[in-house]
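--- STAGE predict ---
source: upstream dedup step, 1 unique chain passed
mode: sequence only
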Amino acid sequence: MPRKQTPLRPYFEKMPEIGKELREGEIRRSQENVELVREQEAILAAEVERVKNSGIPAAKIHERGGMTIYDRLEYLIDEGTWCPLHTLYNPTDNEEGCTGVVNGLGKIEGKWAVVIGFDNKVMAGAWIAGQAENILMVTDMAKRLNVPLVWLTNCSGVKLMEQETVYAGRRSSGAPFYRHADLNQLGIPILNGIYGTNPAGGGYQGISPTILLAHEGANIAVGGAGIVGGMNPKGHIDAAAAQQLIEGTKSFKAKAPGRVETHFDHTAYFREVHETEQGVLDGIKDYMRMMPAYDPTMFRVAEPADPRLSPTDLDLILPANQKRPYDAMQILARLIDNSEFMEYRPGYGREVFTGIAKVDGFPVAFIGNQQGVFPGYPAYAEGAYPGVGGKHYREGLIKQAEFVTLCGRDNLPIVWLQDTTGIDVGDAAEEAELLALGQSLIYSIEQTELSMMCIVLRKGSAAAHYIMAGPQANNNNAFTLGTPLTEIYVMHGETAAAASYARRLVKDEEAGKDLQPTLDKMNQMIQDYQDKSRPAYCAKTGFVDEIVSLPGLRKYIQAFTGANYQNPKSITPVHQMLLPRIIKG
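--- STAGE serialize ---
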C-alpha cells in the first residue's frame, strides 16, 4: 500500500491557533455595534436592489421569451460560488444608475472564471459612461489571476447622444478590444456567448474574444441599420433625406446585417449556434470543462476546514467607532482554516502582523494592521510619543517589505487586511527614513508577480492606503473589498479642515473678525469628507470593487485563493518554500 501525505506536513498540518470565543458580556455589549453594521447594510442592500432594477423591468424581457443578465448568470455559475464585483460602480453618476455591465468571480463547471455581461435591460446593453473602466478592471483581474474571461455579450453599441463620454481616449470603450488581444496572447482564453443585436462597438466586442457562441437570433456587425441608413452627404437632414432614412431603416428591419447565416454559414466566425439562450450557456459550460486547471490536491497543504471560530462574530468584533481599537487576531481567526496562523516576526514591527494561514487547504499569506497603543515603540521616537495601531513605523515597514519579498520567492498569494490611518510624521519619522521605506514596500510589491487582494476593514487613509496594496497596486491587486464600516479618505475630515483653515483662523482672529464664517466652512468640509467616504460612495466611485458583509469576506478570500491556485504561471514546490522554515527558525 502506498503511503501519502501533504507537503511540509510538520509545518502545515497543525499550525498555532489564534483567537478565542466571545464571552457573553462581550456579545451583550456589542449589540449596538451590530445595529450600526445592519444600518449600513440596509443602505447598501437598497442600492444594490436599485442597480438590479435599472432599465426596463425584467418582466418585459421575459415576455419576449428572453433572459436577463441575472438569469443568465444564475444558470451559468455553479451554485454558491458567485462573488459579484463593481455592483454599485457608477463614477459619473449616469442617469441609468449603473455602468451597464454586471461582473464578478465564480465557478463554471468547477473552474474559476472572471465573468462579465451586458445588462440587456439597460439601453439593450449600450456603451455608457464608466463602462469602459469597469471592463478594464475585469480584464485586468483575469490577467492577474490567469483564469478564463467569460463574456455574455448583448451590446447595442454607443449611447450616441453621449458619445464623448465613451468613444475616445486612452481608457475608452475601444481599449477592451486591445485587452482581449493581450489576454489571448498570454494564453488566457475568452469565451463569449452572444445575444441580440450587436452593431458597431458591439460587433467588435462580439468578435474579439477567443471562442464565439451565438444564439440563433443574434447578429454582430461593423455597423447597424441606423448607421447605414443615416449616411448623408448633405451635412443636415431635410425632408428628402428623412424619406431616404425611412426607406433604409425599413429595409434593414427586414434583415439586420451580421446574422447567423452570415457569421456561421459564411464567415464561420461563430463556433456554435444554439436555438435557446440556455443552449449558449451550456456551450460555455462545455468549453469551460476544456480549460486548463490543476487538481487542487496539487497545491493543498492540508484538507480544507472551516474557521474554528464563527465568521458571524465579526459584526460584534469590528467596532463601528473608528477610534476604538480591537484585537486583529480575533478578525483573522474567523477568516482562515481552523483559525490557525503561522506568524512571521511577531515581536518586530508591532503595528502590523504578517504570516501564513490556510484557506481551503491552500497556503496564503496575510498582512494587516494591529490596533491599540504600543508604549516604548517606535524606538526612534525615544519616548516622545507611543506608537498607535493603524499607523506605520520603521520596523513595520521593513517587516512588510521583507515578508512580501519572501512571499514572491515562495509564490504565496497575499491578502491584506487594511485598517490604517497613515504613516508616522515629523522630523523623527523622516530621520527614520519612513518616506523611503514606504516606497520600498511599494517596490517590493511591484517586484513580485504575486496576486493580491485588499480588504479595507475600516480606514484606508493617506499614503498608507497605497502602500498596503490598495487598488493602486493594479499590477498585483486583483480586487479590493470594503465592508459596511469602510471609510477611505486622504486624511480624517477634522484633520483636513484644520490643515485647510488654520491659517485663516489666525488671520481672522488677529483682524478681530467673526470666526463663525470660517468655522462654518470647516464644518462643511468635515461633513463633505464624511459624505464622500461612506461605504456606498466608495463602491460607486471605485475606491473599492465591492462592499461585502463581514461574514461574507471569507467567501471572497476562498474565491481569490482558488483562482490563484487553479492554473498558476509560476510554481514554488511546497517542500522548497523558505517562509515556513524562517518562521519556525
